[in-house]
Prior knowledge:
The chain contains 1 helix and 25 strands. It is mainly β. The two termini are about 10 Å apart.
Amino acid sequence: MTNSRKIILTLIVIVAVAIGGVSLVNVGGSGSVSATTALAAPDINYDDFAKADAPYDWNFPEDFGAHPDFLTEWWYYTGNLATDDGRRFGFQFTIFRRAISPIATQSDSEWRTNQVYLAHFTVSDIEGNEFYHDERFSRGGAGLAGAESDPRYRVWVEDWEILAQNDDASLVTIQAETDEFSIDLTLEQMKPVALQGQNRDGLSAKSLNTENASYYYTIPRLETMGTITLEDDVFEVSGNTWKDHEFSTSALDEGTVGWDWFGMIFDDNTEMMLFEIRDADGGDAVYASGLLIYPDGTTEYLSFGDFTVTVTDTWLSPTTDATYPSGWEMTVPTEGRGTLNFTVEPLMRDQELGTTDPAYWEGAVRISGDVNGYGYAELTGYVDSMQNRF
């Protein structure tokens, strides 16, 4: 959502990076983070930041880059890949930006910045039933981390990087490496940008309160090939990747706790995004939205109350003791394709980032029924509330 698609603003922790001059880098693949400096974050006046409260004048590839006038932003890639003999993998690579003040202070020091960055990187080895995850933090100064579109689209946290290979950014590479696992992937855009929201203009509401919204676009299908390395094993893989990019200064509406988000790539050259935002009392959906993307790139908005998402199974995390949904039946009425009934099941039950703060579940799923394919699900607010996290 990705609202990622989202998000996971453990970034409050890394305000220390911008204030204290320390780059926080995760050690190993456990998701644990150590730092030599920890300072309290300053109070933030949200009214001083830009708001997602009116239609936005999109301009690509410029808008692939950063929007520092907004408090929060993220670039989110999730893919389902396989080797030629059918061994399946999932991956998530997300970079988050958080502003700690609305205006950058002028300074002769290249280290001074009002922006901090966080990256989450995961690989799901389905056959091996292993979930690898890591995270990295850095300041948005001295070239350590950033996001730009000039001269070309690039988003990076140290040597973890998304980089355009042509001027329109229709071809990008993603490279990230840890001691245990790495990816080196090339992604080619197969469909035009899809603007989310009720009017399909990129203004995406997150509640019935119009103050809770983000600017949100999707590139729903990127043909992907490259390598995944696990320890000493290198796998040549190919498949499809979903991209979300959101920026906002909004927060969850009062009384809500988190969201369930699904990005699904179907075998018939259509795609679908659905999300539900849950209340803090019974976990029921208090707002939902979606988008169906047709083979020619045209889109259909899916309204709150029109579709249903029913949980069919659950999974108890051995790391956090949280109980997550672990299977769904979905019924989605559409104008162009009638009512679609299908099931969504995790390819692997344990795909939880259980050592991040906040912890959440993000993993590869399989779709079967009236439509078939693969996708990703993101489940937040099952360990701790996402209130004031983004």
